[in-house]
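Pipeline run #58 for the internal structure catalog. This entry was flagged by the ingest filter as a single-chain record with no existing model, so it goes straight to prediction. Upstream metadata was stripped on purpose; only the residue string is passed forward. Reviewer on rotation: M.T. Logging verbosity set to normal.
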Amino acid sequence: MRVAVLSPVVWRTPPRKYGPWEQVASNIAEGLIEKGIDVTLFATSDSVTKAKLESVINNPYGENSGLDAKVCECLHISHLMECANEFDIIHNNYDFLPLTYSRLIKTPMVTTIHGFSSPKIVTVYKKYNDFNNYVSISNSNRSPELKYTATVYNGINEKEFTFKKEHGDYLLFFGRIHPDKGTYESIEIAKMAGMKLIISGLIQDEKYFEEKVNPYIDGENIIYAGNSGPDKRNELLGGAYLLLHPISFEEPFGLSVVESYFCGTPVIAFNRGSMPELVSDGKTGFLVSGINEAAEALKKIKGINRVDCFTWAKSKFTRSKMADDYIDVYKKVLYNK
């Protein structure tokens, strides 16, 4: 089976720091390689992979303001589509634009829908639904207007994370700094609990950061650790008492939640989107409805066994399991199995 994995070119695959879609595309490619699948990864030239690497974009446009995003996308996606007949199946991790080629090529396409940036893009997914095979990354993130082949949870390379039997003394917010992700709410929860908070993530909304986050950063009780790469991510997650995930949107998935579990660190998350599928309430953390409930739930975290967090993640969210699930999808598409 010859599989082409299409990754975005906003960031490197895998990303140096932030880049969730590139991270998942990398995990898919490397996971398939470990299963003996012939994989070609379409990504930026500086990407790191054991697969064959195909690229026409040298550097990620997220790291180079001189590059035009649309030009990069068009060159990158068209490069794959022009050699589509070299593959048995194309695995699209680049949103809706590659769908517009699906009637022009003979190679079947599997599209992982990593989320809907706007309800408007559902129109494109609807148009090409009969020519594509859609995979959702959580059951909660399914549009009732679309047909799906499967739900496959994002899988993590657990070797990149270190299980810590003992917890640290700080709360952690790990994610992009944006109102959707609840950075300010994490600060409020930490203040109510009287605990130190470390914030790490890409500043995606500068105004929000300056108005709602930066005024509280004092380097002692509220600390901003910057946008962390893999090593620092492992250190921060493993050393935390708890990961706070007070989202204000219907999040399709939450990589940091699963990554936290592999370090043994429990999670308190607002009960929205995919969180009921990722958080085993009362066993790996708690689902809450607001900051007051979160502060109350903090008092019960000592009852959470860190081994249970790791075991939960190991049973559902490994790279190996994700690869197996996608191979099942490919077989269903290619052989109707």
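catalog note: The CA atoms of residues 41 and 53 lie 5 Å apart.
catalog note: The first helix runs from residue 20 to 34.
status: ready for reviewer M.T.
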